[in-house]
Amino acid sequence: MEKYLITGGTPLVGEVEIGGAKNAALAILAASIMTDETVTIENVPDVRDTNVMMQAMESIGAHIEKIDRHTFKINGSRIHNQVILNEGIKKIRASYYLIGALLGKYKNAEVPLPGGCHLGTRAIDQHIKGFRSLGATVNVRHGSVIAHTDNLHGSHIFMDKVSVGATINVIMAAVMAEGRTVIENAAKEPHVVDLANFLNSMGANIKGAGTDVVRINGVQKLHKSEYTIIPDQIEAGTYLMAAAATRGDITVKNVIPKHLECIYAKLNEIGCQVEESDDAVRVVATKRLGNTQVKTLPYPGFPTDMQPQMTAILGISQGISIVTESIFDSRFKYVDELTKMGSDIKVEGNTAIITGVDKYTGAEIAAPDLRAGAALVIAALTAEGDSVVTDIRYVQRGYEDFHLKLAKLGANIQLVEEDDEKKPESVFTAVVS
Ligand code: EPZ
Fold first, then answer.
1. What is the DSSP string of 22-86?
2. What percent of the chain has pLDDT over 90?
3. What is the pLDDT of residue 234?
4. Left, alpha or beta for 201 (phi > 0: left; psi -120 to 50: alpha)?
5. Nearest of 258, 221, 222 to residue 237 by alpha carbon
6. Pairing between β-strand 364-366 and β-strand 386-390 as defined by DSSP bridges
7. What is the mean predicted confidence (pLDDT) over 103-122?
8. Euclidean distance between CA atoms 222 and 109, whole angstroms
9. Is the full-model pTM beyond 0.85?
10. Which of 18, 11, 16 is nearest to 272 (CA)?
11. Burial category of 370 from C-beta neighbours within 10 Å (exposed 0-12, middle 13-18, buried 19 and up)
Protein backbone atom coordinates (compact mmCIF):
# COMPACT_ATOMS: atom_id res chain seq x y z
CA MET A 1 0.00 0.00 0.00
CA GLU A 2 1.20 3.53 -0.67
CA LYS A 3 1.43 6.54 1.61
CA TYR A 4 2.38 10.22 1.43
CA LEU A 5 5.39 11.60 3.31
CA ILE A 6 4.83 15.32 3.84
CA THR A 7 6.89 18.10 5.43
CA GLY A 8 4.62 21.06 6.13
CA GLY A 9 5.16 24.80 6.30
CA THR A 10 5.63 25.81 2.67
CA PRO A 11 3.04 28.18 1.13
CA LEU A 12 1.75 26.67 -2.12
CA VAL A 13 2.18 29.00 -5.07
CA GLY A 14 1.46 28.61 -8.76
CA GLU A 15 -1.05 27.37 -11.34
CA VAL A 16 -2.75 23.98 -11.56
CA GLU A 17 -4.70 22.54 -14.50
CA ILE A 18 -7.99 21.00 -13.36
CA GLY A 19 -9.08 17.70 -14.88
CA GLY A 20 -12.46 16.30 -15.85
CA ALA A 21 -15.13 15.93 -13.16
CA LYS A 22 -14.96 12.42 -11.65
CA ASN A 23 -18.63 12.39 -10.69
CA ALA A 24 -19.72 13.52 -14.14
CA ALA A 25 -17.36 11.04 -15.82
CA LEU A 26 -18.72 8.05 -13.89
CA ALA A 27 -22.28 8.82 -14.99
CA ILE A 28 -21.29 9.62 -18.58
CA LEU A 29 -19.15 6.48 -18.96
CA ALA A 30 -22.09 4.35 -17.82
CA ALA A 31 -24.49 6.21 -20.13
CA SER A 32 -22.12 5.79 -23.11
CA ILE A 33 -23.22 2.13 -23.52
CA MET A 34 -26.84 3.21 -24.13
CA THR A 35 -26.23 3.40 -27.90
CA ASP A 36 -24.90 0.74 -30.28
CA GLU A 37 -22.88 3.41 -32.05
CA THR A 38 -19.43 4.63 -31.02
CA VAL A 39 -19.12 7.44 -28.48
CA THR A 40 -15.94 9.47 -27.97
CA ILE A 41 -15.47 10.97 -24.52
CA GLU A 42 -12.75 13.51 -23.73
CA ASN A 43 -11.42 14.86 -20.42
CA VAL A 44 -12.01 11.64 -18.50
CA PRO A 45 -9.94 11.90 -15.29
CA ASP A 46 -7.38 9.10 -14.89
CA VAL A 47 -8.42 8.00 -11.39
CA ARG A 48 -9.23 4.62 -9.89
CA ASP A 49 -13.00 5.06 -9.95
CA THR A 50 -13.19 5.78 -13.69
CA ASN A 51 -10.84 2.90 -14.47
CA VAL A 52 -12.92 0.52 -12.33
CA MET A 53 -16.08 1.65 -14.11
CA MET A 54 -14.56 1.01 -17.55
CA GLN A 55 -13.31 -2.44 -16.48
CA ALA A 56 -16.84 -3.34 -15.41
CA MET A 57 -18.22 -2.13 -18.75
CA GLU A 58 -15.67 -4.25 -20.64
CA SER A 59 -16.58 -7.25 -18.48
CA ILE A 60 -20.03 -7.40 -20.12
CA GLY A 61 -18.75 -6.80 -23.63
CA ALA A 62 -18.40 -3.06 -24.14
CA HIS A 63 -15.50 -2.23 -26.44
CA ILE A 64 -13.30 0.58 -25.11
CA GLU A 65 -10.42 2.03 -27.12
CA LYS A 66 -8.01 4.31 -25.24
CA ILE A 67 -7.06 7.21 -27.54
CA ASP A 68 -4.94 8.97 -24.91
CA ARG A 69 -4.81 9.22 -21.10
CA HIS A 70 -8.07 11.17 -20.99
CA THR A 71 -9.88 10.20 -24.22
CA PHE A 72 -11.81 6.98 -24.94
CA LYS A 73 -13.90 5.59 -27.78
CA ILE A 74 -16.68 3.38 -26.38
CA ASN A 75 -19.01 1.03 -28.24
CA GLY A 76 -21.73 -0.87 -26.36
CA SER A 77 -23.12 -2.82 -29.35
CA ARG A 78 -21.46 -6.09 -28.34
CA ILE A 79 -22.71 -6.12 -24.75
CA HIS A 80 -23.72 -9.76 -24.35
CA ASN A 81 -25.39 -9.69 -20.97
CA GLN A 82 -26.51 -7.27 -18.33
CA VAL A 83 -25.18 -9.07 -15.25
CA ILE A 84 -22.18 -7.33 -13.76
CA LEU A 85 -19.94 -9.84 -11.96
CA ASN A 86 -16.80 -7.71 -11.92
CA GLU A 87 -15.44 -7.70 -8.35
CA GLY A 88 -13.92 -4.24 -8.57
CA ILE A 89 -17.23 -2.55 -9.22
CA LYS A 90 -18.31 -3.33 -5.66
CA LYS A 91 -15.72 -0.84 -4.44
CA ILE A 92 -17.26 2.23 -6.01
CA ARG A 93 -20.48 4.04 -5.21
CA ALA A 94 -21.17 4.86 -8.84
CA SER A 95 -21.57 1.18 -9.78
CA TYR A 96 -25.29 1.82 -9.54
CA TYR A 97 -25.16 4.00 -12.67
CA LEU A 98 -24.85 0.77 -14.65
CA ILE A 99 -28.32 -0.20 -13.40
CA GLY A 100 -29.92 2.90 -14.90
CA ALA A 101 -27.96 2.60 -18.13
CA LEU A 102 -28.59 -1.12 -18.65
CA LEU A 103 -32.24 -0.89 -17.60
CA GLY A 104 -32.78 2.10 -19.86
CA LYS A 105 -31.32 0.34 -22.89
CA TYR A 106 -31.93 -3.40 -22.32
CA LYS A 107 -34.78 -3.26 -19.75
CA ASN A 108 -32.64 -5.62 -17.69
CA ALA A 109 -29.82 -5.15 -15.16
CA GLU A 110 -28.11 -7.05 -12.36
CA VAL A 111 -25.44 -5.01 -10.57
CA PRO A 112 -23.77 -5.48 -7.15
CA LEU A 113 -24.91 -3.06 -4.46
CA PRO A 114 -22.60 -0.04 -4.38
CA GLY A 115 -19.56 0.36 -2.15
CA GLY A 116 -17.55 3.56 -2.00
CA CYS A 117 -16.74 5.92 0.84
CA HIS A 118 -18.11 5.16 4.31
CA LEU A 119 -20.10 8.33 4.94
CA GLY A 120 -22.94 6.72 6.84
CA THR A 121 -25.92 4.92 5.35
CA ARG A 122 -25.73 5.07 1.56
CA ALA A 123 -29.30 4.03 0.77
CA ILE A 124 -30.55 3.58 -2.78
CA ASP A 125 -34.27 3.61 -2.03
CA GLN A 126 -34.84 6.68 -4.22
CA HIS A 127 -33.16 4.96 -7.17
CA ILE A 128 -35.39 1.91 -6.70
CA LYS A 129 -38.47 4.10 -6.29
CA GLY A 130 -37.70 5.78 -9.61
CA PHE A 131 -37.07 2.52 -11.49
CA ARG A 132 -40.29 0.98 -10.15
CA SER A 133 -42.23 4.12 -11.05
CA LEU A 134 -41.04 3.65 -14.65
CA GLY A 135 -42.44 0.11 -14.67
CA ALA A 136 -39.45 -2.02 -13.62
CA THR A 137 -39.54 -4.88 -11.13
CA VAL A 138 -36.63 -4.27 -8.77
CA ASN A 139 -35.30 -6.62 -6.10
CA VAL A 140 -32.14 -6.84 -4.02
CA ARG A 141 -30.87 -10.40 -3.87
CA HIS A 142 -27.51 -11.89 -2.87
CA GLY A 143 -25.93 -8.46 -2.69
CA SER A 144 -27.06 -7.30 -6.11
CA VAL A 145 -29.80 -5.05 -7.42
CA ILE A 146 -31.86 -6.90 -10.04
CA ALA A 147 -34.09 -4.76 -12.27
CA HIS A 148 -36.21 -6.00 -15.16
CA THR A 149 -39.27 -5.03 -17.22
CA ASP A 150 -40.95 -5.74 -20.55
CA ASN A 151 -41.37 -2.05 -21.15
CA LEU A 152 -40.50 1.22 -19.48
CA HIS A 153 -43.18 3.93 -19.43
CA GLY A 154 -42.99 7.61 -18.47
CA SER A 155 -43.93 8.63 -14.92
CA HIS A 156 -44.23 11.63 -12.60
CA ILE A 157 -41.69 10.97 -9.82
CA PHE A 158 -41.37 12.96 -6.60
CA MET A 159 -37.98 12.35 -4.98
CA ASP A 160 -38.36 12.11 -1.19
CA LYS A 161 -34.94 13.71 -0.83
CA VAL A 162 -32.49 15.43 -3.14
CA SER A 163 -30.19 12.72 -4.48
CA VAL A 164 -27.50 13.23 -7.14
CA GLY A 165 -27.24 9.51 -7.87
CA ALA A 166 -30.97 8.86 -7.98
CA THR A 167 -31.59 11.87 -10.24
CA ILE A 168 -28.91 10.71 -12.68
CA ASN A 169 -30.02 7.08 -12.57
CA VAL A 170 -33.70 7.84 -13.19
CA ILE A 171 -32.80 10.15 -16.08
CA MET A 172 -30.85 7.30 -17.72
CA ALA A 173 -33.66 4.78 -17.15
CA ALA A 174 -36.23 7.21 -18.61
CA VAL A 175 -34.54 8.48 -21.79
CA MET A 176 -35.91 5.63 -23.96
CA ALA A 177 -39.06 4.91 -21.93
CA GLU A 178 -42.40 5.31 -23.72
CA GLY A 179 -43.83 8.75 -23.02
CA ARG A 180 -42.95 11.59 -20.70
CA THR A 181 -41.20 11.46 -17.34
CA VAL A 182 -41.06 14.30 -14.81
CA ILE A 183 -38.63 14.19 -11.88
CA GLU A 184 -39.55 16.59 -9.06
CA ASN A 185 -37.09 17.55 -6.29
CA ALA A 186 -34.22 16.66 -8.63
CA ALA A 187 -30.55 17.29 -7.78
CA LYS A 188 -29.04 20.34 -9.57
CA GLU A 189 -25.31 19.56 -9.36
CA PRO A 190 -23.13 20.45 -12.38
CA HIS A 191 -22.55 16.75 -13.03
CA VAL A 192 -26.30 16.15 -13.33
CA VAL A 193 -26.39 18.85 -16.01
CA ASP A 194 -23.32 17.37 -17.72
CA LEU A 195 -24.94 13.91 -17.89
CA ALA A 196 -28.14 15.39 -19.33
CA ASN A 197 -26.18 17.39 -21.91
CA PHE A 198 -24.28 14.24 -22.87
CA LEU A 199 -27.48 12.21 -23.34
CA ASN A 200 -29.04 15.05 -25.35
CA SER A 201 -25.95 15.02 -27.58
CA MET A 202 -26.83 11.35 -28.24
CA GLY A 203 -30.40 12.28 -29.25
CA ALA A 204 -32.21 12.20 -25.91
CA ASN A 205 -34.87 14.78 -25.08
CA ILE A 206 -34.16 16.08 -21.56
CA LYS A 207 -35.16 19.54 -20.34
CA GLY A 208 -34.70 21.29 -17.00
CA ALA A 209 -31.49 19.59 -15.82
CA GLY A 210 -29.93 21.95 -13.28
CA THR A 211 -33.35 22.87 -11.91
CA ASP A 212 -35.38 20.87 -9.42
CA VAL A 213 -37.82 19.69 -12.14
CA VAL A 214 -36.37 17.57 -14.95
CA ARG A 215 -38.60 16.62 -17.91
CA ILE A 216 -37.74 13.72 -20.21
CA ASN A 217 -39.57 12.76 -23.41
CA GLY A 218 -38.66 9.17 -24.28
CA VAL A 219 -36.99 8.59 -27.67
CA GLN A 220 -36.64 5.38 -29.70
CA LYS A 221 -32.84 5.13 -29.62
CA LEU A 222 -29.65 7.04 -29.01
CA HIS A 223 -26.81 7.66 -31.46
CA LYS A 224 -23.09 8.36 -31.53
CA SER A 225 -21.58 11.46 -29.95
CA GLU A 226 -18.31 13.20 -29.21
CA TYR A 227 -18.37 14.80 -25.78
CA THR A 228 -16.01 16.60 -23.38
CA ILE A 229 -16.58 16.27 -19.65
CA ILE A 230 -16.80 19.45 -17.54
CA PRO A 231 -13.93 20.41 -15.19
CA ASP A 232 -14.02 18.98 -11.68
CA GLN A 233 -15.58 21.48 -9.24
CA ILE A 234 -14.33 19.53 -6.22
CA GLU A 235 -10.77 18.99 -7.46
CA ALA A 236 -10.55 22.74 -8.16
CA GLY A 237 -12.05 23.60 -4.78
CA THR A 238 -9.55 21.34 -3.05
CA TYR A 239 -6.56 23.23 -4.52
CA LEU A 240 -8.16 26.58 -3.64
CA MET A 241 -8.50 25.31 -0.06
CA ALA A 242 -4.83 24.26 -0.10
CA ALA A 243 -3.90 27.85 -1.04
CA ALA A 244 -5.96 29.21 1.85
CA ALA A 245 -4.57 26.72 4.36
CA THR A 246 -0.90 27.24 3.48
CA ARG A 247 -1.17 31.04 3.09
CA GLY A 248 -0.32 30.56 -0.55
CA ASP A 249 -1.37 31.87 -3.94
CA ILE A 250 -2.91 29.32 -6.33
CA THR A 251 -4.70 29.77 -9.63
CA VAL A 252 -6.86 26.85 -10.77
CA LYS A 253 -7.09 26.81 -14.58
CA ASN A 254 -9.57 25.26 -17.02
CA VAL A 255 -12.51 25.63 -14.59
CA ILE A 256 -16.08 26.95 -14.77
CA PRO A 257 -15.93 29.73 -12.12
CA LYS A 258 -19.70 29.64 -11.64
CA HIS A 259 -19.36 26.11 -10.24
CA LEU A 260 -16.81 27.32 -7.69
CA GLU A 261 -18.72 30.36 -6.37
CA CYS A 262 -20.23 28.43 -3.43
CA ILE A 263 -16.68 27.40 -2.42
CA TYR A 264 -14.63 30.58 -2.87
CA ALA A 265 -17.35 32.77 -1.33
CA LYS A 266 -16.58 31.07 1.99
CA LEU A 267 -12.80 31.51 1.49
CA ASN A 268 -13.38 35.20 0.77
CA GLU A 269 -15.52 35.45 3.92
CA ILE A 270 -12.67 34.21 6.15
CA GLY A 271 -10.11 36.60 4.62
CA CYS A 272 -8.78 35.22 1.33
CA GLN A 273 -8.48 37.39 -1.75
CA VAL A 274 -10.29 35.83 -4.70
CA GLU A 275 -9.88 36.74 -8.38
CA GLU A 276 -12.16 35.23 -11.03
CA SER A 277 -11.56 35.21 -14.79
CA ASP A 278 -13.19 33.38 -17.71
CA ASP A 279 -11.78 29.92 -17.02
CA ALA A 280 -9.67 30.40 -13.91
CA VAL A 281 -9.96 31.34 -10.24
CA ARG A 282 -7.12 32.59 -8.06
CA VAL A 283 -7.04 32.47 -4.24
CA VAL A 284 -4.43 34.33 -2.18
CA ALA A 285 -4.10 34.10 1.60
CA THR A 286 -1.55 36.41 3.21
CA LYS A 287 -2.63 36.37 6.84
CA ARG A 288 -4.23 34.12 9.44
CA LEU A 289 -7.80 33.45 8.39
CA GLY A 290 -10.95 34.11 10.39
CA ASN A 291 -13.89 31.99 11.52
CA THR A 292 -17.26 31.34 9.91
CA GLN A 293 -20.31 29.05 9.88
CA VAL A 294 -20.76 26.47 7.14
CA LYS A 295 -23.71 24.20 6.39
CA THR A 296 -23.41 21.70 3.56
CA LEU A 297 -26.34 21.74 1.14
CA PRO A 298 -27.24 20.40 -2.30
CA TYR A 299 -25.94 22.56 -5.16
CA PRO A 300 -25.74 25.56 -5.33
CA GLY A 301 -25.13 25.37 -1.58
CA PHE A 302 -21.74 24.63 -0.01
CA PRO A 303 -20.78 21.14 -1.28
CA THR A 304 -20.53 18.28 1.19
CA ASP A 305 -17.47 17.11 -0.75
CA MET A 306 -15.67 20.27 0.39
CA GLN A 307 -16.67 19.93 4.06
CA PRO A 308 -13.55 18.11 5.34
CA GLN A 309 -11.20 20.51 3.53
CA MET A 310 -13.02 23.55 4.96
CA THR A 311 -12.96 22.08 8.47
CA ALA A 312 -9.20 21.53 8.18
CA ILE A 313 -8.73 25.21 7.34
CA LEU A 314 -11.03 26.43 10.12
CA GLY A 315 -9.08 24.25 12.57
CA ILE A 316 -6.16 26.70 12.31
CA SER A 317 -8.19 29.88 11.73
CA GLN A 318 -8.87 32.58 14.33
CA GLY A 319 -11.90 32.05 16.57
CA ILE A 320 -14.72 29.52 16.84
CA SER A 321 -16.39 28.10 13.72
CA ILE A 322 -19.35 25.77 13.21
CA VAL A 323 -19.60 23.22 10.39
CA THR A 324 -22.90 21.38 9.93
CA GLU A 325 -23.09 18.32 7.64
CA SER A 326 -26.64 18.08 6.34
CA ILE A 327 -26.13 15.57 3.49
CA PHE A 328 -24.49 12.52 5.08
CA ASP A 329 -24.99 11.16 8.54
CA SER A 330 -21.36 10.30 9.30
CA ARG A 331 -18.84 12.54 7.58
CA PHE A 332 -16.66 13.68 10.50
CA LYS A 333 -14.59 10.51 11.07
CA TYR A 334 -11.45 12.38 9.94
CA VAL A 335 -11.69 14.74 12.96
CA ASP A 336 -10.00 12.05 15.08
CA GLU A 337 -7.04 12.29 12.70
CA LEU A 338 -6.93 16.11 12.93
CA THR A 339 -6.93 15.71 16.72
CA LYS A 340 -3.64 13.80 16.42
CA MET A 341 -2.27 16.97 14.75
CA GLY A 342 -3.35 19.20 17.63
CA SER A 343 -6.77 20.41 16.46
CA ASP A 344 -9.49 21.43 18.94
CA ILE A 345 -12.69 20.20 17.29
CA LYS A 346 -15.74 18.79 19.05
CA VAL A 347 -18.25 16.77 17.00
CA GLU A 348 -21.83 16.68 18.26
CA GLY A 349 -24.06 14.67 15.91
CA ASN A 350 -23.78 16.26 12.47
CA THR A 351 -22.12 19.44 13.74
CA ALA A 352 -18.44 20.20 14.37
CA ILE A 353 -17.58 23.00 16.82
CA ILE A 354 -14.09 24.17 15.85
CA THR A 355 -11.84 26.27 18.09
CA GLY A 356 -9.00 27.48 15.91
CA VAL A 357 -5.49 26.61 17.11
CA ASP A 358 -2.27 28.36 16.04
CA LYS A 359 -0.98 25.44 14.03
CA TYR A 360 -1.12 21.73 13.37
CA THR A 361 1.86 19.55 14.22
CA GLY A 362 2.91 16.67 11.97
CA ALA A 363 1.64 13.16 12.78
CA GLU A 364 0.87 9.74 11.26
CA ILE A 365 -2.72 9.97 10.04
CA ALA A 366 -5.01 7.70 8.01
CA ALA A 367 -7.40 8.77 5.26
CA PRO A 368 -10.90 7.46 6.15
CA ASP A 369 -12.39 8.39 2.76
CA LEU A 370 -11.67 10.29 -0.44
CA ARG A 371 -12.32 13.93 0.47
CA ALA A 372 -11.24 13.53 4.09
CA GLY A 373 -7.96 12.12 2.77
CA ALA A 374 -7.45 15.28 0.72
CA ALA A 375 -8.28 17.37 3.79
CA LEU A 376 -5.66 15.53 5.87
CA VAL A 377 -3.06 16.16 3.16
CA ILE A 378 -3.95 19.86 3.30
CA ALA A 379 -3.58 19.83 7.10
CA ALA A 380 -0.18 18.09 6.82
CA LEU A 381 0.95 20.70 4.26
CA THR A 382 0.34 23.42 6.84
CA ALA A 383 1.68 21.49 9.83
CA GLU A 384 4.92 22.07 11.67
CA GLY A 385 7.16 19.09 10.99
CA ASP A 386 6.66 15.80 9.14
CA SER A 387 3.49 13.81 8.57
CA VAL A 388 2.69 10.42 7.10
CA VAL A 389 -0.72 9.97 5.45
CA THR A 390 -1.70 6.33 5.01
CA ASP A 391 -4.66 4.64 3.26
CA ILE A 392 -4.21 7.05 0.38
CA ARG A 393 -5.90 4.59 -2.02
CA TYR A 394 -9.03 6.52 -1.11
CA VAL A 395 -7.45 9.78 -2.31
CA GLN A 396 -6.30 8.12 -5.54
CA ARG A 397 -9.92 7.20 -6.30
CA GLY A 398 -10.72 10.82 -7.08
CA TYR A 399 -7.57 12.96 -7.53
CA GLU A 400 -5.36 12.47 -10.58
CA ASP A 401 -1.63 12.95 -9.84
CA PHE A 402 -2.47 14.59 -6.52
CA HIS A 403 1.05 14.56 -5.07
CA LEU A 404 2.61 15.60 -8.41
CA LYS A 405 0.30 18.59 -8.80
CA LEU A 406 0.94 19.61 -5.18
CA ALA A 407 4.71 19.23 -5.64
CA LYS A 408 4.58 21.53 -8.67
CA LEU A 409 2.99 24.10 -6.36
CA GLY A 410 5.96 23.80 -3.99
CA ALA A 411 4.70 21.14 -1.59
CA ASN A 412 7.26 18.88 0.06
CA ILE A 413 5.38 15.63 -0.58
CA GLN A 414 6.52 12.16 -1.62
CA LEU A 415 4.60 9.04 -2.56
CA VAL A 416 6.19 5.91 -1.11
CA GLU A 417 5.27 2.26 -0.71
CA GLU A 418 4.17 1.42 2.86
CA ASP A 419 6.87 -1.18 3.37
CA ASP A 420 9.29 -0.31 0.62
CA GLU A 421 12.81 0.43 1.81
CA LYS A 422 13.79 1.79 -1.63
CA LYS A 423 14.46 5.50 -1.95
CA PRO A 424 11.12 7.34 -2.06
CA GLU A 425 9.94 8.12 -5.60
CA SER A 426 11.64 11.35 -6.59
CA VAL A 427 8.79 13.73 -7.11
CA PHE A 428 10.97 15.91 -9.31
CA THR A 429 11.80 12.99 -11.65
CA ALA A 430 8.13 11.99 -11.75
CA VAL A 431 7.10 15.55 -12.54
CA VAL A 432 9.65 15.97 -15.32
CA SER A 433 9.03 12.55 -16.92
C1 EPZ B 1 -22.82 11.72 -5.08
O2 EPZ B 1 -23.05 10.63 -4.20
C3 EPZ B 1 -21.31 11.83 -5.16
N4 EPZ B 1 -20.75 10.60 -5.68
C5 EPZ B 1 -20.74 12.13 -3.78
O6 EPZ B 1 -19.35 12.39 -3.95
C7 EPZ B 1 -21.38 13.39 -3.23
O8 EPZ B 1 -20.93 13.58 -1.90
C9 EPZ B 1 -22.90 13.26 -3.23
O10 EPZ B 1 -23.36 12.94 -4.56
C11 EPZ B 1 -23.60 14.54 -2.80
O12 EPZ B 1 -23.23 15.58 -3.63
C13 EPZ B 1 -20.81 10.37 -7.01
O14 EPZ B 1 -21.33 11.17 -7.78
C15 EPZ B 1 -20.20 9.08 -7.48
P16 EPZ B 1 -26.73 11.43 -2.98
P17 EPZ B 1 -24.53 10.01 -4.08
O18 EPZ B 1 -27.54 10.36 -3.58
O19 EPZ B 1 -25.20 10.08 -5.40
C20 EPZ B 1 -29.16 9.83 0.76
C21 EPZ B 1 -17.07 12.05 -3.72
O22 EPZ B 1 -16.31 12.35 -2.78
N23 EPZ B 1 -29.83 8.97 -0.19
O24 EPZ B 1 -26.91 12.83 -3.44
O25 EPZ B 1 -24.44 8.71 -3.39
C26 EPZ B 1 -27.69 9.52 0.93
O27 EPZ B 1 -27.50 8.50 1.87
C28 EPZ B 1 -18.41 11.44 -3.40
O29 EPZ B 1 -16.82 12.26 -4.93
C30 EPZ B 1 -30.93 8.22 0.23
O31 EPZ B 1 -31.33 8.29 1.39
O32 EPZ B 1 -25.19 11.07 -3.10
C33 EPZ B 1 -27.13 10.85 1.38
O34 EPZ B 1 -27.34 10.98 2.77
C35 EPZ B 1 -18.61 11.23 -1.91
N36 EPZ B 1 -31.55 7.40 -0.66
C37 EPZ B 1 -27.99 11.87 0.64
O38 EPZ B 1 -29.18 11.17 0.25
C39 EPZ B 1 -31.13 7.29 -1.97
O40 EPZ B 1 -31.74 6.53 -2.74
C41 EPZ B 1 -27.36 12.43 -0.61
O42 EPZ B 1 -26.90 11.34 -1.38
C43 EPZ B 1 -30.01 8.06 -2.37
C44 EPZ B 1 -29.39 8.89 -1.48
1. HHHHHHHHHHGGGSSSEEEEE----SHHHHHHHHHHHHTT-EEEEEETTEEEEE-TT---SB---
2. 89
3. 98
4. alpha
5. 258
6. parallel
7. 84
8. 18
9. yes
10. 11
11. buried
Domains of the chain and CATH, by start: 2-19+231-417 (3.65.10.10), 22-228 (3.65.10.10)
265 residue type, one letter: A
| pLDDT for position 113 | 86
DSSP per position, 223-276: --EEEEPPB-HHHHHHHHHHHHHTT-EEEEES--HHHHHHHHHHHHHTT-EEEE
* Residue 117 known to be catalytic: yes
Is 429's pLDDT higher than 90? no
Whole-number Cα distances in Å, 314 to 230, 267, 268: 29, 10, 13
Which is the catalytic residue, given 117, 136, 157, 206? Answer: 117
Q: How far apart are CA 44 and CA 71, in angstroms?
A: 6
- Residues having CB closer than 6 A to ligand 1 are 22-23, 26, 93-94, 117, 121-127, 161, 163-166, 187, 189, 304-305, 327-328, 370-371, 398
Report CA(164)–ligand 1 centroid distance (Å). 6
